[in-house]
Structures are given as structure tokens and as C-alpha cells.
Amino acid sequence: MTEKPTADENPAEASDRAEAKPAKRKASKPKKRGTSSNSAKRNKGGRPAWAPSIADRQTVERLKFCGESEAMIARALKVDVDTLRKHCANELENGYANQRAEVTKLLFEAAHAKNVSAIKRLDEMGKVSRAAGSVGERGKPQAAAAAAPKPARLGKKEERQAAAENVGGKFKAPEPPKLVVNNQ
Questions:
Q1: Residue 62 and residue 24: Cα distance in Å, rounded?
Q2: Using an 8 Å Cβ cutoff, are 75 and 82 in contact?
């Protein structure tokens, strides 16, 4: 690789300059497959990771609302249960509540449109939820009683001492004698 002399230079000087810079040559080594960091990033191999679509997520919520198990939902989507849990954890956890809210919204819209069966169904749902709330609060103390602070509980020794001080009747301790003279 010799450089061509320009119009200003002498061809002899150009050849001297070319000899002063020896050309660097790398020894070519055979490349091993898979050793390069780029090739490891490019060629992962195996099946690509499952990425659920919006339709898949809605399917998970709907099936969860209908009471299907995680195994059945995974089978319907043709994925493993662990994959389903990894990618659709929110839908599995909140799917029932989200779909219940959607159904209730549609029921209210139908009731506002004067649908008598929707009105009856909402009335029934209200009565059931009110009854369930009152049943759940049966064992709980009233708010006024719960607000009153409870006295501190005494230990065994304190209880026995208090009981001994409050003894009355014939088992009451006698009064100490009264001194006539003050010895101070």
C-alpha cells in the first residue's frame, strides 16, 4: 500500500514516506462460533417469550370471572401456568373485580334505560349486599362501646393485693392501736 504522490511532492519523497510507515497486518485466526458477545445476544435460540395481547388479557379476566382455575385458563391460551402467572398476574388477581364492575355498569345503564328486569336485579343485589354487611357486623362491638378505653389489666400479684385490701366483714384486719402520746 503505497501512497500516490501529490502534484507538490517529489515521487522519491513519497516512496520514503511509504517505507517509513510499515503496514499493519493482523494474523487471521479462525473464529469460533458463539464466542463473540454479539453472537450471543443475537442468537438466543428457543421459542420467543409469550407476550399477551389485550384480547388475551380480557380472556383471562372473563374466564376468572366465570370461576375457571388458572390451569384451565392457561390451557385455553395454550401457555404454561407459570407463564400465565408471570405475564397476567394483575388480571388473575383483579379479574373478577374488574369484570364484576363492568357487569354492574352495564346493569345500571340498562336500569337507566327503563329496563324493568335490570331494575329488579339491582334492587335484589342491593338487598343482598346490605344483608351481608349487617351479618358481618353482628359479632363486632358497637362504635360507642369500642371507643371507650379499656382499663389496664392488672397482673396476678396486683389483683391479689387489691383483693386483700378490700376484704370486709369478720375477716377484715383490725384497726391499728391509736397512740395517746406522740413520741416525736
A1: 68
A2: no
What lies within 8 Å, CB to CB, of 6 at 6+ separation is 14
Q: Give the whole-angstrom CA distance, residue 174 versus residue 161.
A: 17
CB 88, CB 60: distance < 8 Å: yes
pTM: 0.47
Per-residue exposure over 127-139, b if at least 16 CB sit within 10 Å of its own CB, e if not: eeeeeeeeeeeee
Residue 53 exposed, middle or buried by CB count within 10 Å (0-12, 13-18, 19+): exposed
Q: Which tens digit of pLDDT belongs to each residue from 54-103?
A: 999 999 999 999 999 999 999 999 999 999 999 999 999 998 999 999 99
Contact (CB, 8 A) for 20 and 1: no
> Are 57 and 98 within 8 A, CB to CB?
no
List C-alpha distances in Å: 15 to 24, 91, 146.
17, 76, 104
Grid cell for residue 111:
336500569
CB atoms < 10 A from the CB of 175, how many? 6
